[in-house]
């Protein structure tokens, strides 16, 4: 989310992601109340309010005299959360772009503040997102991407792209599911720019509805596998190669309220999620407080490991994660959590604050009247220093080496100007718009300053805020004379909101290629699948790595299935005697090998966190290992037909069993949506898989017939010639397709599930018995 986060806005929440609750929109209230305080202080000589300037006579002259400024015609609806960004729109050099609550997007040349040709663009819908930029369609100039609408106007807006001359290149609306009785269309998060599916340029952002979109930047078309089902998203996603695979992952924060939806229980609070570029979940870390802070990604953890730092919010009273900054690794495991002195809705910066080559975490806080700025050790979260700030801390800090000292200075936006602190000593060294020495007086900021390497080589600082006297927006540009702009925004800096003009939220290059062994990379990070044969031979396709097999072992019983977990590498194989074979990142948690069984094992499935698994026997007996809970079985029932498969609920709090006659048995929170038990089947059922997108499921028969229950039907091989019978089904982990595999290794893809190759027509020592992948 840009600058001032959700808790000074109206926040849309859906308990269980289905119903709506609203917070009062307090943006204008904040501006007006602080304006009254400032007017009173100036009129009556009050000196003990929080916005009293603390730099005073020592404030350098460059900080009181902008090189240029532009008042905006937006009285009553000024610049709020939208932060200034830098774009190249014409031959006149780079321009500053920013939006306002009246619905305009502005572009001013950095050199002199003159408007770029065709700008401003009047969209007529509030802009609280920060514009992101990138060239598209072979143009030498940038396209500007903005989310429109906000929490005060949730029923309007969407995803928009503006061409270099201000022309609207495309508009993509948020499409609500038919079950949503309180639809929203606004996009308050900013659009991050990257390449998500190995082709051209894409953009990604959540909406205030239940969908998070990834779009082709050239035309606004929704990418395959998207949207991802989410709750209201205010946080701007980070984009990074987290595993050294050459693929870009999405790191996003969001909110959730307690409830049940799409086959999953949700707890009250928020989460930090990692998604793959195809809209599938890799892993998630849940908090008990909303997450409206935008994550910052970089190699700041011990040993230079990559991770994500993020704040939370203040929406849920009494939550233990209130006022905290947290850091997780690339498998969503918590590395550290640090409680600060007030709310942490601000988006952190990762910067080499001390100039020693290591990244620290910088956060500002807000307590409703004032705030602080904090510098935390990136490796363990220990505070290095903190200091009070002039006003409320509703924006997000940026950093740069402003004065050529070799370390970072912190630019801290407040509701009473921007304060600049020395990163090492914590001393306050300058203030922008913190007193009336500036022609525009004291300005309020609930976004982030922009630092640039200006065309003359000096350091430039651009701010976009609002006045207290006329309540309109102002853009100002300052320059530090005889400074080094290139050094200021070089390595170790965080010079603008979410780090760079593409708003990737990434400092550095992501994880180097090969830094994580392939079989330790979370399986859902790969685009591919594994087939397993009866002798335990493994056949890997796409970029799914081969992590070992039992093909060369003398097995006591044949292999009957395999499983993966999205956030662990490797996989498990299970034999009919209950023996379990674990490879690489898949931990061994026990087996039924060597133990008496009433009936043979026929399948297995892993828990969502990869720390356990279930085995199922043909009589429906269920055996649990690791953190897999026992929810019941059919082991004591007389079945019409044997059980042939098991599928876990998306949250791991239940599972379904399927019999060869199509009978379905549900346990825990797994819902029953129907079965094929009463149908006259042409061929027996051999497997089932859950649809993570709907909470429903698919059954597959040996003739390739697919039966959908509360899940979309994407096609089947029923009625078509097959060289060998179907033995398994695998779902795309975004829920928008599936693959069928035959005993000869033939592979048939439907929906967005990709065909990466097969063993059809090739010699196999033993027939294929299963498939798993993402």
Would you mind describing this structure in some detail?
The chain has 774 residues and is mostly beta strands. The protein contains two helices and 53 strands. The strands form 15 sheets. Strands 1, 32, 33, 34 and 35 form a five-stranded antiparallel beta sheet that branches. A hairpin with a 4-residue loop joins β48 (697-701) and β49 (706-709). The longest helix has 18 residues, at 27-44. The two termini are 29 Å apart. The model is unreliable at 1-57 (pLDDT under 50).
Question: Termini distance?
Answer: 29 Å
The largest sheet, given as strand count, sense and whether it forms a barrel, is: 5 strands, antiparallel
Q: What structural class do you assign from the helix and strand content?
A: mainly beta
Count up the helices: 2
Strand content bin: 35-45%
User: Radius of gyration from the CA trace?
Assistant: 28 Å
**What overall geometry do the principal axes of the alpha carbons give?**
elongated
Subunit arrangement of the protein: single chain
**Stretches where pLDDT falls below 50 for ≥5 residues?**
1-57
């Amino acid at each position: 989310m840009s600058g001032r986060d959700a808790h000074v806005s109206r926040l849309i929440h859906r308990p269980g992601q289905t119903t709506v609750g609203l917070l009062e929109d307090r943006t204008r209230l904040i501006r007006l109340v602080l304006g009254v305080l400032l007017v009173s202080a100036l009129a009556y000589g009050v000196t003990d309010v929080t916005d009293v300037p603390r730099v005073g006579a020592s404030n350098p002259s460059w900080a009181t005299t902008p090189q240029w400024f532009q008042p905006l015609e937006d009285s009553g609806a000024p610049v709020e959360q939208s932060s200034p960004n830098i774009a190249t729109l014409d031959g006149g050099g780079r321009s500053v772009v920013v939006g306002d609550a009246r619905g305009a997007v502005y572009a001013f040349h950095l050199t002199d503040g003159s408007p770029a040709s065709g700008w401003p663009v009047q969209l007529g819908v509030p802009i609280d997102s920060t514009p992101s930029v990138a060239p598209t369609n072979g143009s030498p100039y940038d396209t500007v991407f903005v989310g429109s609408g906000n929490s005060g106007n949730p029923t309007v807006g969407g995803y928009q792209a503006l061409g270099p001359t201000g022309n609207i290149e495309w508009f993509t609306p948020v499409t609500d599911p038919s079950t949503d009785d309180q639809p929203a269309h606004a996009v308050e998060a900013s659009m991050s720019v990257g390449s998500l599916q190995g082709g051209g340029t894409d953009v990604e952002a959540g909406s205030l509805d239940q969908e998070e979109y990834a779009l082709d930047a050239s035309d606004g078309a929704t990418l395959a596998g998207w949207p991802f089902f989410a709750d209201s998203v205010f946080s701007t996603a980070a984009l990074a190669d987290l595993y050294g695979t050459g693929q870009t992952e999405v790191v996003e924060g969001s909110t959730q309220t307690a409830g049940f939806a799409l086959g999953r229980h949700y707890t009250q609070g928020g989460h930090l999620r990692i998604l793959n570029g195809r809209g599938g979940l890799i892993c998630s870390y849940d908090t008990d407080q909303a997450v409206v802070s935008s994550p910052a990604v970089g190699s700041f953890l011990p040993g230079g490991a990559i991770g994500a730092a993020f704040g939370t919010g203040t929406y849920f009273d009494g939550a233990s994660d209130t006022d905290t900054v947290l850091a997780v690794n690339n498998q969503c495991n918590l590395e550290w959590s640090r409680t600060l002195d007030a709310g942490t809705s601000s988006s952190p910066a990762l910067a080499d604050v001390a100039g020693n080559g290591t990244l620290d975490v910088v956060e500002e806080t807000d307590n409703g009247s004032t705030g602080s700025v904090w510098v935390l050790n990136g490796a363990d979260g220990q505070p290095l220093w903190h200091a009070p700030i002039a006003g409320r801390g509703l924006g997000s800090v940026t950093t740069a080496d402003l004065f050529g000292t070799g370390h970072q200075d912190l630019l801290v936006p407040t509701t009473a100007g921007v304060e600049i602190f020395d990163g090492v000593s914590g001393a306050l060294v300058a203030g922008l718009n913190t007193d009336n020495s500036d022609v525009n007086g004291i300005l309020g900021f609930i976004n982030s300053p922009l630092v640039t390497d200006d065309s003359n080589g000096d350091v430039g600082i651009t701010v976009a805020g609002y006045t207290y006297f006329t309540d309109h927006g102002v853009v100002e540009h300052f320059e530090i004379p005889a400074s080094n702009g290139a050094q200021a925004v070089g390595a170790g800096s965080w010079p603008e909101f979410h780090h760079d003009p593409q708003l990737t939220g990434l400092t550095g290059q992501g994880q180097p290629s090969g830094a994580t062994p392939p079989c330790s990379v979370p399986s859902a990070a790969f685009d591919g699948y594994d087939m397993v044969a009866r002798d335990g031979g493994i056949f890997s396709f796409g970029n799914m790595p081969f992590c070992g097999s039992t093909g060369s072992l003398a097995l006591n019983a044949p292999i009957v299935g395999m499983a993966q977990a999205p956030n662990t590498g490797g996989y498990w194989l299970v034999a009919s005697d209950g023996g379990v074979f674990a490879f690489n990142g898949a931990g061994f948690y026990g087996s039924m090998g060597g133990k008496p069984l009433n009936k043979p094992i026929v399948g297995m499935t892993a828990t969502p966190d990869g720390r356990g698994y279930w085995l199922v026997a043909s009589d429906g007996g269920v055996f649990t290992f690791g953190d897999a809970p026992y929810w019941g079985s059919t082991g004591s029932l007389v079945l019409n037909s044997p059980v042939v498969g098991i599928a876990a609920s998306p949250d791991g709090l239940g599972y379904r069993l399927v019999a060869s006659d199509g009978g379905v048995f549900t346990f825990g929170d797994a819902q029953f949506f129907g079965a094929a038990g009463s149908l006259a089947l042409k061929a027996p059922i051999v497997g089932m898989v859950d649809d993570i997108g709907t909470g429903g499921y698919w059954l597959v028969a040996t003739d390739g017939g697919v039966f959908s229950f509360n899940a979309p039907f994407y096609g089947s091989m029923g009625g078509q010639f097959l060289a060998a019978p179907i033995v398994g089904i695998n779902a795309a982990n975004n829920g928008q397709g599936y693959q069928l595999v035959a005993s000869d290794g033939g592979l048939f893809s439907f929906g967005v599930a990709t065909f990466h190759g097969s063993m059809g027509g090739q010699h196999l020592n033993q027939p294929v018995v299963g498939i798993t992948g993402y």
